[in-house]
Amino acid sequence: MKITIITVTLNNRDYLEQTIRSVIDQSYSDKEYIVIDGGSLDGSKGLIESYAAHIDYWVSERDNGIYHAMNKGIAVATGDYCLFLNAGDVFVDSSVLDRAKPLLNADFMYGAAYVVEPNKTKSLWKGPLQVTPLFFMQRFSLCHQSVFTKMHVLKARPYNESYQVVGDYEQMFYELIINKRTFRRLEMVIADFRRDGISADDYKADLEKQKVLEAFRYFGYIEHDELLKRISQLKMGTRKYALALFFLRLIVDGAKTLAPFRSKLGK
């Protein structure tokens, strides 16, 4: 099984090398490493060139944002599973891929991660025991530095590049609800995630997640009734699932009610 690691970076040379070293040092042999640099001006290109012998594909050119860069990596990737480890993020040790490989059997496999704050303090993020619609509807998301995703899932529907911060949230939520992808938790720590990048902008992330939760926009090409039907087909045996469906009905019904008024305002 080939595992692809993709690193996306922009003007982050000071942290990029430790990420590259972390991937190179993995003991697992059947890995593919891709580095997508957004045309950095801080010497990152030269650093990448110095490690070119250990990188299967790299490019340094301007892009249209982080999710455009991630999609560029997906487009050239050839692995069975993919994990994004961006500049400043590192694997917790050199055996992560070796230990994870025999456990990978779902569309999304997520482990734990240490969140490293700007002041260098660390906290352990474990993720939910089970990923449900309610998890995403509460605006929670998985830490993508600890998520192994089947490559065919990413290639079939790449990240929505209109989002600046929550493209991974939108993608996983969509795949759970619409395509009924499987999510399973790995009982292991995958990476250290440095939380002072674009994903640390909580205000912007909250605004974008609200847009995702507006079902009439999020599922713009799917009828609202069909969306509710698909959600109801998921296992609704717990109160949490029932609550998730209840709140999504409120969102959809509210969107339908407001649509005529928004249309008038737009004229």
UniProtKB/TrEMBL annotation:
Keywords linked to the UniProt accession: Transferase
InterPro entries: Glyco_trans_2-like, Nucleotide-diphossugar_trans
Keyword Transferase attached: yes
Domain Glycosyltransferase 2-like: 4-125
Gene3D superfamilies on file: Spore Coat Polysaccharide Biosynthesis Protein SpsA, Chain A (3.90.550.10)
GO MF terms, alphabetically ordered: hexosyltransferase activity
Chain segments annotated as coiled-coil in the UniProt record: none
PANTHER family xrefs: COLANIC ACID BIOSYNTHESIS GLYCOSYL TRANSFERASE WCAE-RELATED, GLYCOSYLTRANSFERASE
Protein name according to UniProt: Glycosyltransferase involved in cell wall biosynthesis
Source species: Sphingobacterium paludis
